[in-house]
User: Fold this.
Amino acid sequence: MAKIDLTSLEWCDLIFKGKNKAYGAYKLRENSSKRHNLAMLLVIAIAVVGFSIPTLIKLATPKEKEVMTEVTALSKLDEPEVKQEQKKVDPNTPPPPPLKSSIKFTAPVIKKDSEVRDEDEIKSQQDLTENKTAISIADVKGNDEQNGKDIADLKQVVTQAPVDEPEKVFDMVEQPPTFPGGQGELMQFISKNLKYPTIAAENGVQGRVVCQFVVGSDGRVRDVKVLKTLDPYCDKEAIRVIQSMPRWIPGKQNGKSVSVKYTVPIIFRLQ
Assistant:
């Protein structure tokens, strides 16, 4: 059997023998070989252009010139010369004065035994202790021998900082402290601010808590304590109410505001 070229016109005429060749399929089959060849050439052209683009870009880009930099080692650099300034000494400058001794030297005097008085004899440590003799170093002078002073004549001045004495708290004064508005306002303040402890109310605790506190010279309430206790929760509530009080009018003694102790009872009563 002879080989048949599927792209030839003979093959196309053989297929469409006895058929309508005016139909579009015959035209497509007839020109298929040309289209295949054109498509193949187009693919090859695109491939060649794609592979050649990097080469063309490389050829079109100018080469950068290599710059050579000469590096010189620091050890080879010449060290700069440092000029040393020489101080000129003036030959006419007088020499500095000699230093004086800080302690004046007293030359010893040799005497005969008959010429030595009892008070000139060197006393032992025991004699000094028994006689309570004061020792004075009268021969020691300062750096200034002309104006040197005897150490025994120098007195040490001790300055003590004033100690603030604690403020006196009075039990009784000429004019006792008062709550702003009087005793009625004090009772009203306690009744308004007192909160009955829940636990004490549930346990049916009733009674009176006696508290004592100090009204300072500035009218502030401080040092609150319980003199007569009722219940831990009631005691705590009584202290809280007293500490929340505003400033009082301070008590006075000899026309001067002073700190005074004050006692007040607080009653807990169930309605």
